[in-house]
Amino acid sequence: MPSSWLQLSLRTDPTALDAVANFLIERGSPGVVIKKNEVQAYFPQRGDSAAVQADVQRFLRGMQRLGVETGADSQRWRILKDRNWNNAWRRFFHPQRVGKQFLVSPPWAKPRLGRRDLITIEPGMAFGTGTHATTRCCIEFIEQVATCLRGSEFVALDVGTGSGILSIALAKLGARSVWALDNDPLALKVARANLSCNGVAEKVRLSATKLSHIRKSFSVVVANLTAETILDLAGALEKKVAAKGFLILSGILKPKVRAVADRFAANGFRVVRRRSEKEWATLLLRRR
Q1: Which domains does the chain have, with CATH numbers?
Q2: Model-level pTM?
Q3: CA distances from 285 to 60, 114, 254, 268 (A)
Q4: 141/56: higher pLDDT
Q5: What average pLDDT does range 75-88 have in this prediction?
């Protein structure tokens, strides 16, 4: 573990909070804290720290060019030399109730489960810890779909699996098998560890295979990406959904919902349900 950490603080528009926090987590921050209009993130100080800072600056500038105030000019970086910080960052992660069935928890917590099923996720290097609105909404829709498919042995596809959390939920909710795709080797490594920790590794096939190269269809397809990526992959996503199958799309900013819904409606899908939280929207569609 590193002996010192970099702390980033920046003030940003409330509508950009989740997007900024999401990027910082994906860039490797194991601890991100949101306080009103401020984001604080922590990175281990090591040889690539300058690259991390440059990547953050590049992302914030890119958001600004899209008209979103991200606080690119208000960044504050400082070094924290606290040998206890290695474990102190863990206080930012607590067990979270997600959907009606799950409790998502970091491995060091000892949560009271009650009637909920436990999903254990190691926070850090891959997106999907159960705290983000898009992840929570996806799991809610996965629960709904699993109820509809109860009694049948369904197969599922998780596109952009990240930490593997959605594949874990699918496996625990009755999927006979799950294909989990990601083009990031680090995400696949993290997902593999999380799948093993949750006892579902035998049900989930992790792969870096391109979506367009998969020739089979699935009862359930989940893609928690961005609106732009979903539209780019729309044709391939449609082909992977079996007759009367379900498609869950998330990571969509509200202004983009109409474009995404219309694209799939034009090709035989109807919107069963829409769920919005903050600036994010999640769609549950079904092939006609």
Answers
A1: 5-91 (3.30.70.1170), 93-287 (3.40.50.150)
A2: 0.78
A3: 33, 32, 16, 10
A4: 141
A5: 70
